[in-house]
Amino acid sequence: MRSYCNLRLGSIAVLVGLIGILLGACSGPQLAYRNADWLLTRYADGYLDLESAQRERWQPILQAALERHRGNELPLISAFLGRVAHAVEAGLSPSGLVCLRAELGPLLQRNARLLAEASAPLLASLDARQTDYLETRLDEANAEYRENYLAPEPVQRREDRVGRVIERIERWTGRLDADQERLVKARVATWPDLAAPWYTYRFERQRGLLQLLRADADAVAIERFLSDWWVDMQPPSSDLELARDRVLSAIIRLLVDLDGTLTGKQRERAVQRLQELAEDLQRLTPYPTRNPVRQLAGAECASVDALADTVAHHLHAKRVERGR
Length: 324
Fold this sequence. Notes:
Layout: H1 14-22, H2 29-34, H3 36-48, H4 52-90, H5 94-124, H6 128-149, H7 154-173, H8 178-188, H9 195-214, H10 219-232, H11 238-259, H12 264-282, H13 304-323
């Protein structure tokens, strides 16, 4: 299951992946987040056809997960976006992007782990009819994936992929000029096409989940399965892992070279959009005026675990202050 704005696994493709993960189709992140309980329940209902009693039992679990996300994860996401904005403003470098990629992985894993914990009890409550309903919805989603990513003609698949990459970049920079588009097209054309093997992996994991549900697995077993799938995200073969790493390295080279072609207006627009999103998310945290880890925006590298410890410390101090 993914969240209302695809804030989950998707493609971990450094900044291009970040674009898809953090923005997706969302508009008005504050409005969406403040209605997250309703949006997520509606999304889950669309896949699971829930009974009213199931929705009621899940609400306290969902509310607790959202509260943890607001207190522990949003400050990290906001700070990370601030670091990306600083990197874009200063000019992207290979070492800086490698660092951001290293930070993004654990950040996504923390969010995926929280999603797995919240989803498992709901999935464990499904009956046979609802499991069949989920299978039908997954089949529909898979058909959409095949239509979008597995066009039968290799040339069409490559053109579609180039179009997606350009569209994601232009969400931040605005319209690319002809030379910039040619650069993107030339680079993306050399990337391995991983859509088919990732589809196979995704399909196999879906079948594994359905098998668990039909065996009446408990929430603990389901959470373990979801964590292996969503959090660890290990490729099913060493060849696919090597191909994925090749793509990530190629993305870093593309972004560095594209950065060198940005106009002042394009760079300013990207920085502004990143900063605005970071500030929007910041206002949703327990620290609406001051992010406890934002001061590290200019650091070359930062440990997500260390940043999380800083957030936890400030949350504890805030609770103590409220208790006085």
